[in-house]
Amino acid sequence: MDEVLLTTDIYISYDYDAKSTMYESNSSIKISPASLTKLMTALLLYETNSLNQQITTKLPQDYEFAGKVAYLEEGLILTTEELLELLLVYSANDAAYVAAMEISNSIEDFVNLMNLRANEIGMNNTVYLNPDGLDELGHQTTLNDLLILSIYIIENTKILDITSKEKVYINKLDKKTFKNTNTIINEGFEGLKTGWTSEAGLTFIGFNQNNSRRVITIVNNSLVDEEKINHFIDTKVLYENSINDFNIRNVLNKNDIIYKIYNSESVTSYFPSKNLKSFIKSDTNIEKIVKIENNNFLISFDNISLQERINIPTSNYKVNYQFHWSNRFLNNIFNN
């Protein structure tokens, strides 16, 4: 793939509707996921509890508040939705541990569930060691696995309804209002999750549905700047390049004449049954290649993996091929 000028060399962009990767770099290497980990924690909580179910907060006996936390006290009553909001909007580490203790008897048991669920949905290069994503040797994933998780969440849950909130209000806590850590939410990036640790750098899974396109972008290890916004800058550059450089193009139109059959009284033109489209880079040069195979026209295209077969009707008349001059000798096949 062409390089995109970012502060990181670990990134991927994916067109959700075309089911196609546009830009990618180092998408298979092992990385630290930071708080992107909370997406799996949230998925397990979402799949286990209804959104309005009440949860009594409980933390592990030896839990110490670390990183970004909401300072949740034990015995507090929260709904599943409120806990998901703290997890995904505010990215509270203690909310991840409350979720883990709600579902399992221990953090170890919950982590086992995280890894089992990851394997079930095809995240074969992911190992979770904790529910919040703080750096831990061996706690790792890949961008390709994060893409699998993102697609699964978008297709199978309503978690996007939570990640698209600018802020949440929870009256039961001393701090009532919690702003989304995603600061480009008003620019169309409705989710899915931000993250930052010393090992992961700045990282972000973006999902944008503007411009009549649905695009997932993931950046990891963006350079940690003073304002901690490089992952958002990288995301916007990656998104804009993807939108501008890739689109769906017609490579074969319904009004393209494939071949003609001549007789003494008329000429019959044969056309494709449909427009043939491909999701490709805008500046890709496409050349049609035509050959006959098993009584079919086989039309392929240079530079893209796409073929169209068109049946050749039985005929005793001369067939005039339109696409490829080198195939004119094939006329003799049908010319008695």
Please name the defining characteristics of this protein.
single chain, 336 residues, alpha+beta, Beta-lactamase, 2 domains, 5-stranded antiparallel β-sheet, 3-stranded antiparallel β-sheet, 8 helices, elongated, disordered C terminus
Question: How does this model look, in words?
Answer:
The protein is an alpha+beta fold and 336 residues long. It has two domains: 11-247, DD-peptidase/beta-lactamase superfamily (Beta-lactamase), CATH 3.40.710.10; 253-334, no CATH class. Helix content is 25%, strand content 27%. Helix 1 packs antiparallel against helix 2, helix 1 (38-48) packs parallel to helix 3 (93-103) and helix 2 (80-88) runs antiparallel to helix 3 (93-103). The longest helix is centred in the C-terminal third of the chain and has 16 residues, at 230-245. It starts with 10 loop residues before the first strand and ends with a helix.
Quickly give the CATH architecture of the largest domain: 3-Layer(aba) Sandwich
The CATH topology assignment of the largest domain is Beta-lactamase
The ordered H/E elements are EEHEEHHHHHEEEEEHEEEEEEEEH
Q: Which regions contain 5 or more consecutive residues with pLDDT less than 50?
A: 323-336
Major sheet, described briefly?
5 strands, antiparallel
